[in-house]
Amino acid sequence: MKVWITKYALTQGIFEIEAEECGMGFTGMIQTKEEYPSYYHEEGKDWHRSKESAIKRAEEMRQKKISSLKKKLEKLEKMKFE
């Protein structure tokens, strides 16, 4: 099946890959169809069945990261060295 990976969306972007559900007894786990397969957990978080779902998740990740960086910047701006 074709899936979209968002696990590394903020560093590598969203990528499309062929994968199959993993038969190791884990629900929501997939493995890539490569010589050395990669494994991804949690459908809807690390991988998605639709591109739209992947884009929505990546946007959520981006907004969360922006919020975190703003908080860090605010903390740094308030620092005083004497």
Explain briefly what this protein structure is:
This protein has 82 residues and is of the alpha+beta class. It has two helices and five strands.
Which structural traits does this protein have?
82 residues; alpha+beta; five-stranded antiparallel sheet; 2 helices; 5 strands
Write structural notes for this entry:
By secondary structure, the protein is α+β, with helices and mostly antiparallel strands. Helix content is 39%, strand content 22%. The protein contains two helices and five strands. It has helices at residues 9-12, 51-78, and strands at 2-5, 15-21, 30-32, 39-40, 47-48. It is elongated, with a radius of gyration of 17 Å.
Give the topology.
Layout: E1 2-5, H1 9-12, E2 15-21, E3 30-32, E4 39-40, E5 47-48, H2 51-78
Antiparallel strand pairs: 1-2, 1-5, 2-3, 3-4
Number of strands: 5
Assembly annotation? single chain
Strand content: 15-25%
Structural class: alpha+beta
Rg, rounded, reads 17 Å
Summarize model confidence as the mean pLDDT: 93
Low-confidence stretches: none
Choose one word for the global shape: elongated
Q: Note the run of SSEs as H and E.
A: EHEEEEH
Q: Main β-sheet, in a few words?
A: 5 strands, antiparallel
Share of helical residues: 25-40%
Helix count, DSSP H or I runs of 4 or more residues = 2
Biggest β-sheet: strands ordered side by side in the sheet: 4-3-2-1-5
Give the N-terminus to C-terminus distance in angstroms: 60 Å
